Amino acid sequence: MAPPHAAVGTKMPIFGHRDRTAPLTSFHCFIHQQKYCFTFGHELVEAQGTVTLGKWEHVCFVYDKRKGTQAIVVDGKQA
Question: What percent of the chain has pLDDT over 70?
Fold first, then answer.
C-alpha cells in the first residue's frame, strides 16, 4: 500500500539492488509523481496509471528477454 506521502513529487524508493561489478543488472522499484517506476539496467519503465493511495495493489515487473520488452502489471492489468 502506498503511504499518504507517496503523492509528493519526490522519488519514494520501494526496493533496489545495485551490483557495482555489473551495472547493467541493477534493479529498482520506486514511486515518482504518483506512478510506479522500475529501472532494469539503464532502462526506465513507468506505469501509465497512478498509484491508488490507501489501497493495497499488487505490482509486478515483467521482462521478456527474447522480445526485449518490459512492462508493469498492477492488480493483473498492464499499467
Answer: 77
Strands 12-17 and 43-46: unpaired
Q: What is the pLDDT of residue 22?
A: 64
CB atoms within 10 A of CB 63: 15
Evaluate the CA torsion angle 42, 44, 45, 50 in order and state its sign: positive
Residue 38 · residue 32 · CB < 8 Å: no
Per-residue cell: 59: 505490482
Contacts of 58-66 with C-beta under 8 Å, sequence gap 24+, read: 59/29, 61/27, 61/29
> What residues contact 57, with CB distance under 8 A and at least 6 apart?
1, 2, 51, 74, 75
The structure's pTM equals 0.71
